Amino acid sequence: MNKRIACLLAAAIASVLLSALLWLKAYWQILPQLNIISVIAAHLEIADGAAWWLHGVVATLLYSVLFYWLNAHSADNNYVLRGIVVGLLGWLVIMLFIMPALGFGLFIADISQGPLPAVATLIVHLCYGACLGTCYGYFIGWRPAPE
């Protein structure tokens, strides 16, 4: 499979996983004051469904481009680790720029929940990155070495 298409497909699948985790978080009322989809919808004055779609498309496009760029500049084939690095970089950008712009402060400090929101968001992004790297590797034919 073409590596660009593999990046897009892997990022799309990881975005579906991320969306499922966000939906479960909202359904179980975990950190209800940090419902990023509702915040996006309110700031852009769009419906929640449009905010879900926008979040998925932006995540798919930006993360696939970053992952493709990292692959082009790496000689090894540790796609899962590379995906985790992409997730970590995305999390840092969100914590340093997006969350303060949305009124949550650096590392979501302004919702008075201690480190839990930042750590929970980090875990979700690391899961996203691991899924991205695993799917990409699968799409291009990479398989882990048997033990």
Describe this structure in words.
With 147 residues, the protein is mainly α. It has one domain. It contains five helices and no strands. Helix 1 (3-27) packs antiparallel against helix 5 (116-139), helix 3 (48-72) packs across helix 4 (79-101) and helix 4 (79-101) runs antiparallel to helix 5. The two termini are 26 Å apart. The model has no long low-confidence stretch (mean pLDDT 87).
Strand content: under 5%
Mean pLDDT across every amino acid position: 87
Helical/strand content category: mainly alpha
Using DSSP, what is the number of strands?
A: 0
How many independent structural domains? 1
Low-confidence parts: none
| Tally of DSSP helical segments | 5
Largest sheet: none
- Identify the overall geometry: globular
Q: Cα-atom Rg, whole angstroms? A: 16 Å
* Series of secondary-structure elements, N-terminal to C-terminal: HHHHH
Q: How much helix is in the residues?
A: over 70%
Task: Describe the structure concisely.
The chain has 147 residues and is mainly alpha-helical.
Topology:
Layout: H1 3-27, H2 36-44, H3 48-72, H4 79-101, H5 116-139
Helix pairs in contact: 1-3, 1-5, 2-3, 3-4, 4-5
Any key phrases for this structure?
147 residues; mainly alpha; 0% strand; 72% helix; 5 helices
